[in-house]
Amino acid sequence: MITVFDLDGVLSRADTMATLVFTRLRARPWLVFPIGVLSAVAALATPEGELRPRCNRAVVHLALAGMSEEGYRRLAERTARRLAARRDNTTPEIVDAARAASDAGACLVTTATERFLAQRFLAAIGVHGAEVHASEFVFSPAGPRFRTHNVGRRKAFAFRAAHPTGRIGRFYTDSASDLPLAELARDVVLVGPSRRSATAFERTGIRFRRVD
Q1: Which of 173, 69, 82 has its CA nearest to residue 124?
Q2: What is the mean pLDDT of residues 181-204?
Q3: CATH class of the domain whose range is 2-211
Q4: Cβ atoms < 10 Å from Cβ of 174
């Protein structure tokens, strides 16, 4: 069976896409206020709904406006390396579990983060060969925009499309937005969840172990 890992909050304690966005804002400080408002709305929204991902997409589009694909990839590479180098950003036991599953050919990382950024972070922490389900950008002179946003039910759809008869052995996540995917898992591990996410899992009746 496949072992599935969420990226942000699990393999990386920091939100990888948010870290990239805030790095970009250092060169565009006039965007701090509108992005701050959108981020505040996203934080107040329930993790299971559509408002939070809609706000997060708007934040990314606004922050990365005008950026070329080459420029984005340079920024993503720097961000991934910086996050991987932070000792307080990873949990050795979880990273080791991902490496072992990847070495066994049974590791899937699913994330709302853009694919290139996710792949570079995984490479930097030594998780090689994992299957990656991630968000995708399309680039134009106006900058990158989401072509697909791998969040919520879309994670479950992506898993079913790739593994129509497969089942998840163990699923590591920190968020109630992953409830649709957790329903496909035999064993769920909640990693440092917020009170809201833990309560949402309890209400569904899905059995889980909690790691803080």
Answers
A1: 82
A2: 93
A3: alpha beta
A4: 22
